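subagent[fold] <- orchestrator: predict structure for attached chain, return tokens only, no commentary.
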Amino acid sequence: QVQLVESGGGLVQAGGSLKLSCAASGLAFGSYFMGWYRQTPGKERELVAVESAGGSLYYADSVKGRFAISRDNAKNTLYLQMNSLKPEDTAVYYCAARRIGSTRPDYWGQGTQVTVSS
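subagent[fold] -> orchestrator:
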């Protein structure tokens, strides 16, 4: 059974930092694309950042230069370091895993709330 468990969300002031973690189990972590998505009420879930199994990185324009995705394959854990946070970064952040060849994530975490106050 695949499980993705996020942690590290919370309330932070604008300009502050948070680091999200996603602990994965039940899958060959190192062979998956791993990514972070976020969603606010009334909006579609959007891709924030993704790291391929080979280490290629992608970031949404809105977070480039502020967020950094990384993974520790030995610990089956994905991270998202978020710096210079803005109120518009407020959302539920989800961890996702996608097999090579899939067009969308195969597995999702339960989400962690990030709230940035102005």
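orchestrator: received. Logging for downstream: Residues 18 and 77 are 16 Å apart (CA to CA). DSSP finds no helices and eleven strands in the chain.
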